[in-house]
Amino acid sequence: MGHATTDFPHQETIRFTSQDRDGLYKTIFNRRDVRGQFRPDSIPDEVLSRVLYAAHHAPSVGFMQPWDFMLIRDAGVRQQVKGLFDKAHDEAAEMFPEEKQDTYRSLKLEGILESPLNICITCDRSRTGPTVIGRTHIPEMDVYSSVCAVQNLWLAARAEGLGIGWVSIMDPEKLQDVLGIPRDIVPVAYLCIGYVDHFYKRPELESAGWLPRAPLESLLHFDQWGNRDTEGQESITEAIASQADFPHQSF
Amino acid sequence: MGHATTDFPHQETIRFTSQDRDGLYKTIFNRRDVRGQFRPDSIPDEVLSRVLYAAHHAPSVGFMQPWDFMLIRDAGVRQQVKGLFDKAHDEAAEMFPEEKQDTYRSLKLEGILESPLNICITCDRSRTGPTVIGRTHIPEMDVYSSVCAVQNLWLAARAEGLGIGWVSIMDPEKLQDVLGIPRDIVPVAYLCIGYVDHFYKRPELESAGWLPRAPLESLLHFDQWGNRDTEGQESITEAIASQADFPHQSF
After folding, report:
1. Cβ contacts (< 8 Å) between B134 and chain A: which residues?
2. What count of other Cβ atoms lies within 10 Å of the Cβ of residue B235?
3. Would you write out chain B's pLDDT as a tens digit for each of its 251 residues?
4. CA A159 remoteness from chain centre
5. CA B202 to CA A249: how far, in whole Å?
6. For the whole model, what pTM was predicted?
7. Cβ–Cβ contact A230 with B under 8 A
8. Best interface-test mutation with A: which of B137, B143, B173, B231 has the largest number of A CBs within 10 A?
């Protein structure tokens, strides 16, 4: 997405303070996937505009901005989406080992009807024409751009005190039918958004003992996949270990 | 990813101030895709740890945390990656209409060798076993999780004064070969990261007149795809129009 010329206006005057960074990190480390604590209060337009602008300023391959934002408030439409979830949720339960099925069924995994607003973020793969800078060798880049918009929206929502839950347990083609989305537009994310009674301190699946948080240092590789040899890399490994509680200690 | 029980610790004491929100929005609206202004200065370990922690705290489907982080400093490895880019870049130029090929070739699209560090973020689709909560009906959800980690890392980097450029013009299988990544691990994003001389005020492709920023209100649909009827939705449309310069006025 770059350009060889360098005569564009710079941002030179923009400096980030430690307060700015704290605001960002606080948001990142306290963002949660919310399903169960939605309040019915509507979201003020100014607040909703800000989180949508945040989404719209995600990076996009070749600046194609392939996203659209469907705002879904209609109770009948949401009831239909909830029906898609219910069906898929039943199907999903059967896919787990028998001893896990009861636990799976007890999980609260969506807030489609309780939240005051649902948002579907899509990807229009033909926007700006067939050849896109940066998408020539990795065709999924456009969908990845829409995912970046999802994450921007999620973070902005958290900082505004809004919870978001991403509902992925449904048949995407049936969702297209319910929302009237053409077959060639990808429904990337179906989100429930609203104010919440509270946020959990940690991800619910972590608190529930379903899976632990992986130690960050176990996810590092140096120059080649599988190279965990820290020779010459001790310092970054130590820095990570010494900040192991960084996300939770700071706020 | 939720759970029916509600006896997990809450975040009740965490309040977001307007300063916190400003820090987040400032980061979101000033993040750029950087290719040409890298300085060779190395990144302090504490700073690099923080941006990696931010990535590691992205949302992930079923809390599978499918990402790995490959830190690539070796000049020989990076030279090989640059070779993959050069080849793909030549192939890509041929795909554009003839009148656009010269412009395309003049674009600076990567900083693989100039930046002090490259990071490859991957997705291990088999992590935590074959059946993952939330991935049963949309198998791409795991890759989307890794993309969320990319976006978290990108924002944290910006707030730390670091530029990031996402290099997507290369053959992913050849990248797997160069980095020793197994075939079943998806190399989601190849990133160049480092301090920069300056950031541009707007995306380079926007400044260069390649494509304009789409008006946000043109991307909204109400309840059904293509429903632009703002009856009953005037207020959100007006709020968005009145904040059209929000991202640029605020900072």
Report:
1. 109, 166, 168-169
2. 13
3. 344 444 567 665 688 999 999 999 999 999 999 999 999 999 999 999 999 999 999 999 999 999 999 999 999 999 999 999 999 999 999 999 998 898 899 889 999 999 999 999 999 999 999 999 999 999 999 999 999 999 999 999 999 999 999 999 999 999 999 999 999 999 999 999 999 999 998 998 898 888 999 999 999 999 999 998 777 777 888 889 888 766 654 45
4. 14
5. 35
6. 0.95
7. no
8. B137
